[in-house]
Each structure stands twice: as C-alpha cells, then as structure tokens.
Amino acid sequence: MNLFDIIGPVMIGPSSSHTAGAARIGKVALKILGEQAVKAEIGLAGSFAETYNGHGTDKALIAGIMGMESDDERIRCALELAKEQGLDYSFHKISLSGAHPNTACISLTGETGKTCSIQASSIGGGNIRVTQINGMEVSFTGQYHTLVVLHYDRPGTIAAVTNYIAGSDVNIGNFRLSRPKKGGEAVMTIEVDGGVTETMVEGMKLLPNVIQVVLIEAI
User: Fold this and answer.
1) Last residue of some domain: 111, 134, 157?
2) Strand order across the beta sheet in which 145-152 lies
C-alpha cells in the first residue's frame, strides 16, 4: 500500500470510486478499441447503477472513453462534449451475479466499425480491476504496465511473445491466458516491470498469430 491508496488520486470529484475509477475504466476500453469511439453502450451494475447520476459516474466513464484523465476538468461537461464530438452513448442497468458493486460493462464501436467490449470494476481509491475483454476472462488492475495481446490460439504463439519480451530486457511479473475454445481467439494479459517502448509494442504486433497488442500504462 502506498500514500495514494490512502488519500486517493488527484481527480475531479466527488468520489474516487465513482469518478476517478470510472474514468480509468473508460480509458482502458478506449485503448482496447484502439481508435476514436463513435458509439458506447454502457451497462452499470450495483452501486454504479443506483448512484451514477448523482456521483458523476456517467460523465467520468464517457470522459475516459474520450481519452481524458481522471483529473481533467472537462469531465464535468463530458456528456455535452461527447455529443459535440459525435459520440453516441447510452446507459442501462444490469444485474451481474457475484460482481463487484461498482462494475461497468462497456461495448464500443470505433470510427472504422471496429468493436470491443470490456467488463471492469472500480475497487476503491481510483483503482480498477478489468475482468473481461471481448467476452474472455482476464484479471489486471492497471497498477503495473500491462500488455494485452489478442491472438490466435496456435502452437508457439505464447513462447514467441514471452521470448520477445525477454529479449527486450523486460521482466514479466504476472501472466494470464484466456481462450474460450481451443484454436480460436485468445488473450494474454502480461504485467511487466519497467518501461515498455512503442517500438517494442509495434514489434510484437508483427509476431505470427498476433492480432492486436495494447499497452495499458501503470496508473
């Protein structure tokens, strides 16, 4: 635990869980999409569903989807800015058995028609936990640099990715693989120590069977 876990992040209020965490969830969804979003469908569960208007969770999520940080003063007018920028958004309440009370499910459509979806929770102090990407189970908090590697489930793909990371002199702190079915699409979530360069990310994208590589920088 560090000082920021106690006093919370620098942010636009009123709540680190309902605004700072929500903005970070939205920004992770944008990174996974990889391009400007033109449509956002957002399901809210638990406390998020009951208090999102009063606590500004809706504004924070949309702000994150537009790429804003949690301390951006424009969060207060994020809904109006979204309309000006052509971002169509909607909110609805959902029920998720066993989910954290502050959970959002976000489905995005990008300007080229690309789509993605994530499920993530705001777990306190502005911290988040991402639990699903495109329907595949993952688990990362964003407290460490995290590489999200979407790929085809083919022999040697994991070894190629991890060897490339090792060859870039970056240490893997945590690794998780999710695949709904053998031979289909899968996702690696790899938390690493130290910095990750854009050159490294671009190089990983060229590896066989890799579909997409996204770097989620540490919060």
Assistant:
1) 134
2) 171-178, 185-193, 145-152, 210-216
Per-residue pLDDT of 60-70, as tens digits, reads 999 999 999 88
| Structural domain count of the chain | 2
pLDDT per residue as tens digits for the range 17-49: 558 899 999 999 999 998 999 999 999 998 888
Domain that holds residue 52: 3-134
CA-CA-CA-CA dihedral for 124, 126, 129, 135, to nearest 10: 120
Structure tokens at 44: 């809210």
Predicted confidence (pLDDT) per residue in 139-180, tens digit: 998 788 999 999 999 999 999 999 999 999 999 999 999 998
pTM of the model: 0.83
Considering just the CA atoms, what is the radius of gyration of the chain in Å? 17
- Boundary-marking domain end, from 109, 134, 159: 134
Burial 82-94 (b: 16+ CB within 10 A, else e): beeeebebebeeb
The answer to whether the CB of 102 falls within 8 A of the CB of 46 is yes
